[in-house]
Write a structure and sequence with these properties.
alpha/beta, about 100 residues, single chain, three-stranded parallel sheet, about 25% strand, 3 strands
Length: about 100
């Protein structure tokens, strides 16, 4: 699936963008057929949670990066397992979750 007509500097198709990542994942055998024990899903949009539906897993933890907690905090809290709020929350919390999963 071609999702962009802009020059990619040698990148291969399909080009993955914020708007097309779900469709690309749905078409990818790796996402559909490989069964994982754990998935750590990171997203900055609630629609990113749909990526979890493309994978087969036993357990998933979702982390949402909410840029505007006053406006969107409640929706993110209802949707993601963990919500990191504000401008640049960093990756300390997702890194800790990942370490807990793999140890």
């Amino acid at each position: 699936a071609v999702v962009s007509t802009q020059s990619t500097g040698g990148a291969e198709e399909p080009y993955i963008t914020a708007c097309t990542k779900l469709e690309v994942a749905k078409q990818n055998k790796y996402f559909r057929e490989v069964i994982r024990d754990h998935v750590l899903l990171l997203g900055d949009m609630i629609s990113d949670l749909a990526m979890g539906a493309c994978a087969q897993y036993k357990e998933m933890v979702s982390v949402g990066f909410c840029r505007d907690p006053e406006k969107d905090g409640e929706r993110y809290a209802e949707s993601f397992d963990v919500v990191l709020a504000g401008g640049d929350p960093g990756f300390e919390v997702p890194s800790k979750i990942l370490q807990d999963i793999i140890t």
